[in-house]
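Hi team,

As requested, here is the filled-out complex form for the zinc ion run. I kept the field names the same as last time so the parser does not choke. Let me know if anything looks off before we queue the next batch.

— J.
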Amino acid sequence: MACPTDNTLQERFWKHVNKNGPIPVSCPELGPCWIWTGSANQSGYGQIGTSKGLQVVHRLHWTWRHGEIPPGKEVMHRCDTTRCVRLGHLFLGTHTDNMHDMMTKGRNNQPSGDAHYQRKLTRDDVETIRTLWSQGVPQTELAKRYSRKTNTISKIVNRKRWL
Ligand SMILES: [Zn+2]
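And here is what came back:
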């Protein structure tokens, strides 16, 4: 009985992976996403129950190939698809936790003055929104942060409009 937990975990993992996912519009050369069809957490990342508790599946898959994630680093998606687990679509990045943390704190810590002032979104804002969304920040959170309707955020992240 060598590593029975890991074997069954990998079997369970692959049962929930659809390798015929969408091809990323921004970088079609990556090939189709491998979409996690199991459950997802609040941020939209796939998750699976393990002996160590719930784990985010794209990180788990990355560690099977590359080992532990270095401190301060984060496994990120080239394809902007939070549920994708294809290793070729993943890369190690930094600052994700910081940005995510900043967004989360922003919700409870908004300056009272111009927090709800409907200022024009800049191109930088739009890029930031897309980046944060690709890193798992929910659209509802982004809508609050930028005082926009979720529908507007949805159009931005789906590249139908940038303002
Ligand atoms: Zn992908």
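Two things worth flagging: Strands lie at 17-18, 35-36, 47-50, 53-56, 73-77, 90-94. Residues 80 and 131 are 8 Å apart (CA to CA).

Thanks,
J.
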